[in-house]
Amino acid sequence: MGLLNCADSGSGEPIVLLHAFPLNRNMWQAQFEAWSNRYRVIAPDWRGFGESSLGEEEFTMKSCAEDLRHLLQHKNLQEKVTLLGLSMGGYVAFEFVRKYQELLRSLVLVATQAIGDSDAARQSRFETAEFVRTRGTAALADRMIPRLLGKTSLETTPHVVEQSRALICSNSPEGIARACYGLANRRDSTSALQEITVPTLILVGVEDVIVPGIQADNMHKGIRSSRLSIIEESGHLINLEQPRVFNEQVLSFVQEC
Length: 257
Ligand code: MLT
Prior knowledge:
The chain has eleven helices and seven strands. The protein is α/β, with parallel strands linked by helices.
């Protein structure tokens, strides 16, 4: 696997943004606009997403963490990074922290969870892989958006609905299908929580139906150095649904660390 494609802009302390499934680095546009005048903001496309090639190897949370390590090495960063992962990005962040915590200044876990999939959830991932291969990304967007976005966004912000749809449709069906297997086969990271020693901010949307608040509470209890913040009127995609609140909360945390 070659280097991941990534957006990289600004200078200063590095903030690395890890995208959710089935989106890509372009989900972070508002964060690039808000932060790159003070920070170096880096956001990769996972293999098979956006403009990163699919590669030969299996898509796993571990392979993504290694791809990320390879990318950061290539960037030759002199400073420790703030690593921010949203949902699947958080699952990869757990794998990264297990091996490379010394590279981190702080961690932000957004709309994510430490637990692995139940058997039923795994089955549904395999079905999603088949669905996107046969029906394509637009059909997948129709199916997923009502769960990815919160009730408030679905009812009041059609531009966020359209933005989410465009992000999903800009990925390849095969990239998405392979990631379904990676998600289904990820390990439970609950035991890794106690190993996290860097300052950690946990964000969860009140209207998130994919990662319920209880999972954010459990991460908060498991990570000694963590703080939990609950975001009103947001579903799963907090940075798209509540960009102003998201940016403020993350930035004030980064400034304190
Ligand atoms: C994501 O946003 O990355 C996915 O919803 C993760 C998941 O389905 O577990």
